[in-house]
Design a protein that fits this description.
GO terms for molecular function: transferase activity. InterPro entries: ANL_N_sf (IPR042099). This is Acyl transferase. Keywords: Transferase. It comes from Chryseosolibacter indicus. The chain is an alpha/beta fold. The strands form 3 sheets. A 7-stranded mixed sheet has the order 5-4-6-7-8-9-10.
Length: 329
């Protein structure tokens, strides 16, 4: 019998060929043990036993996290993450069964892309996130800051002077420096301060939080490169409803770890999936979402490529501006 522990044990050991089998097994487990997902599948008239590929799996609309408690099985919350949203909007709630698992998994996602946390100083410029509770991003960065064991790692909130002083001090340090910021705060820094951050890796986490007009990712990265004297701008693709993160390599594309897969769906037909090389709506399979739901139909627009990489182009019409919102094309 499949258990939470068996799925988590397979998370880091499987290869690409095993992904399909693990995803299908997890689908059957969640289809029987997740009350909301089971009701959704039943309402669609889908026979679980007839699903033989990942593309055939019914993906649950991400909006369900706003109005339902999404849990596979019965357990007590170790934590609750909520999305940022906009003033007056309904936020998503992700119930977390094991906070340590989330933090250690987020660390594995980062290590897979960039190496050990102890190789970096983490300077976090996340004013909108720090000003509210229950942010998964803040929890992740707190973990990164602690594990880096750097006296300079920390949250800077609105103290740009100290931030720039510390960045200048770290120019001669053997460790690399990461400045991890919400988009509008990085733009403010680029436009008002125009510092030399050529010694930093700059990570933008997307979203204007209602502070500025949304712009394309290309525009954003060009402005940040020029205003911060940076060769590259890195991006993180993550959201309240996912336990995994994907990262860019400084280009416009994100690259997935082995436990996450992006699937394009037809914009006007959510059941037509597997779209490649053209604008599509984005579905996510996140095998780390063992305790909630691993198959999520997001409201993001993007392009998925044959090698598994993907771009995010914006948001679907009438969808909320959320924490993972990047730029609207």
């Amino acid at each position: 019998m499949d258990t939470f522990e068996s799925f988590r044990a397979e998370l880091y050991d499987h290869n690409d060929l095993a992904f399909e089998n693990i995803a299908l097994t997890l689908f059957r487990f969640q289809a029987s043990s997740n009350t909301i997902y089971k009701a959704y599948i039943d309402n669609l008239g889908v026979s679980v036993n007839q699903i033989t590929s990942v593309n055939e799996i019914p993906f649950m609309p991400i909006s369900f996290f706003k109005n339902h408690t999404i849990k596979t099985g019965t357990w007590n919350d170790a934590a609750i993450f909520t999305s940022s949203g906009t003033t007056g909007s309904t936020t998503s709630i992700h119930h977390i069964q094991d906070l340590d698992f989330y933090l250690n998994h987020a660390e594995q996602c980062f290590i897979k892309a960039f190496g050990e946390l102890s190789d970096y100083h983490f300077l976090a410029l996340l004013p909108s996130y720090l000003e509210r509770s229950n942010s998964s991003l803040v929890a992740m960065l707190q973990h990164f800051i602690k594990k880096s064991a750097s006296p300079y790692s920390g949250f800077y909130l609105h103290d740009k002077e100290k931030l720039l002083r510390d960045i200048n001090t770290l120019k001669t340090d053997s460790r690399k420096t990461i400045l991890w910021g919400v988009t509008f705060a990085l733009l403010d820094l680029a436009e008002h301060e125009q510092p030399d951050l050529s010694n930093c890796l700059i990570f933008e986490t997307g979203g204007m939080k209602g502070r500025r007009k949304e712009i394309t990712r290309q525009e954003l990265h060009k402005t940040l490169r020029n205003g911060l004297n940076a060769n590259k701008i890195y991006s993180e693709y993550g959201m309240t409803e996912l336990l995994s993160q994907a990262y860019s390599d400084g280009s416009e594309r994100f690259y997935c770890n082995p436990w996450i897969r992006i699937i394009g769906r037809e914009i006007t037909d959510p059941f037509h999936k597997g779209i490649l090389d053209q604008t599509s709506a984005i579905n996510v399979v996140d095998l780390a979402n063992v305790h909630s739901i691993a198959f999520i139909e997001t409201e993001d627009l993007g392009k998925v490529y044959e090698d598994g990489s993907f771009e995010i182009l914006g948001r679907m019409d009438n969808s909320d501006v959320r924490g993972c919102n990047l730029m609207v094309g």
